[in-house]
Amino acid sequence: MCHVSTINIRSYKPSxxxxxRLFYLGTACVRPAKSIMIESFKLTGGEREIMAELVIVRHGxxxxxxxxxxxxxxxxxxxxxxLQQAHHAGKRLREAGLQFGAVHTxxxxxxxxxxxxxxxxxxxxxxxxxxxxxxxxxHYGALRGQNKDETxxxxxxxxxxQWRRSFETVPPLxxxxxxxxxxxxxxxGPAVEPRGESLKMAYDRIMPYWIDMIAPRxxxxxxxxxxxxGSTLRALIKYLEQISDTGxxxxxxxxxxxxxxxxxxxxxxxxxxxx
Length: 275
Description:
Elements: E1 23-25, E2 28-30, E3 52-58, H1 63-67, H2 80-96, E4 102-105, H3 109-121, E5 129-131, H4 148-155, H5 157-165, H6 183-186, H7 199-219, E6 224-228, H8 230-241, E7 259-263, E8 269-274
């Protein structure tokens, strides 16, 4: 049994950098997984029955992936290879026979198009599709548009590795005059569009969406599909698998490869598979 003060996750407002590791939704006590079985999973004694399936997919290859440039919130399209990866991901999910209650994606076209291709392949285009800036890629600040190999030459491999992979390091920031003021973001207020983000900052913006929009649906037994970006999915993986701040730097998420999490009634991770 869980002993904790009751928190309504729909109205919970976390302090900066803090999210509950244990909270209630109605009578359900939710705690992220402390461990994960990658090779296989077995249910024991009926105690850990699967409540729902969560599938996460990084968008297919974008033109920036192809050109090896930093993208962040820049809205670049998929390549032909990226479209093929999206179709392949959808075919794999169709073979798995998964039925979803909703799909969640960013407001960037490379993720939206990937999500729609997948939904078409699994014949579930009718599903509710929620688009949110909170699932956008991490904002790479002034590195945006620069070639990654060129930045290694200019700043050194160690510095670039720190910018790209550490949890708390913020890349060089854009000037305030360089912000896009795109109406996708200005309607939420000037504070939404960042000048640059660490992975921790991306984590902090994702978690309210997880608490408000995804966790309640999983707790209701509805499978959920998230189609997003490399860094934001790394942030979510960190949360689900309880990976340390230093351990997350070694986690990679491939384009167009569905990752399936088997979740129990407390949203513990029972197992994980690449589909």
